[in-house]
Specification:
The protein has 240 residues and is an alpha/beta fold. Helix content is 52%, strand content 12%.
């Protein structure tokens, strides 16, 4: 089980509200008051049987007692494998170079403007604390660029292109099957026309059949995808 130390406003900055219990309180990132924890939904279900009465009770972490403040919503996972969050107690005497910072831009402020402001602050810190900040700067990036690196985005685009190509081939094959079926039904269509069926009625029948076929195919594909995703999530939680 991986745990992550975060500031008290971590979840509020991300706009995430716990599914059960409460968020961290502002004073809980102070030394002596930071023995509280928020569990992931998977950990809550797997280790504690989704017990709703767990909120407010104590659990043991590395030999110390922590009070469960809340449970994160299902699917929330900022970093791979993290299943528990506890308040971070900042040490002002530390250089803090091992911390990652997430923030929100003010309305109307661009990333370039924020980068310029942070560069100014970094130079000021370097001058004020040369022994700790000499040669250190700040590099800002959009949250999406951080959570999905460029290499992964390229791989995803390649995968989407391959899936799209396979889908086009499948559509072409289905279209050929429908054309072959339509050719085999020429006699049936001729009989319907001879019995007084209008062209629009024949077209409507064929359109209804095509829509019904595509709807059934879509429902079957969606059900298969949902089953595969559910299997993947269960397997991933078991592996952790």
């Amino acid at each position: 089980m991986a745990a992550l130390s975060v500031t008290a406003n971590f979840f509020s900055v991300l706009g995430v509200a716990p599914a059960h219990g409460r968020n961290f309180l502002p004073e809980e990132d102070q030394s002596g008051r930071n023995h509280v924890a928020i569990l992931s939904d998977g950990l809550w279900r797997r280790r504690f049987g989704a017990d709703p009465n767990l909120i407010g009770r104590q659990i043991q972490l590395s030999g110390e007692s922590y009070t469960v403040a809340g449970v994160a919503p299902p699917g929330f996972q900022l970093t791979q494998g993290t299943e528990l969050w506890a308040p971070l107690t900042l040490n002002l005497n530390s250089n803090g170079h091992n911390l990652s910072v997430i923030g929100r831009l003010k309305p109307g402020v661009s990333l370039a403007q924020a980068q310029a402001a942070m560069d100014t602050i970094a130079r000021q810190l370097e001058q004020q604390y040369p022994e700790l900040n000499a040669g250190w700067g700040v590099r800002m990036s959009a949250f999406y660029d951080w959570i999905v690196p460029e290499q992964i985005r390229r791989s995803m685009l390649t995968l989407f292109a391959a899936v799209g190509f396979v889908l086009l081939i499948s559509c072409a094959n289905v279209a050929n099957l429908l054309l072959a079926r339509a050719s085999a039904r020429r006699q049936e269509m001729a009989i319907r026309a001879a019995m007084g069926a209008s062209r629009w009625r024949v077209i409507r029948q064929l359109l209804t059949e095509s829509v019904l076929l595509s709807t059934l195919g879509g429902l079957a594909g969606s059900s298969l995808s949902a089953s595969c995703l559910d299997f993947y999530h269960k397997h991933a939680q078991t592996a952790r």
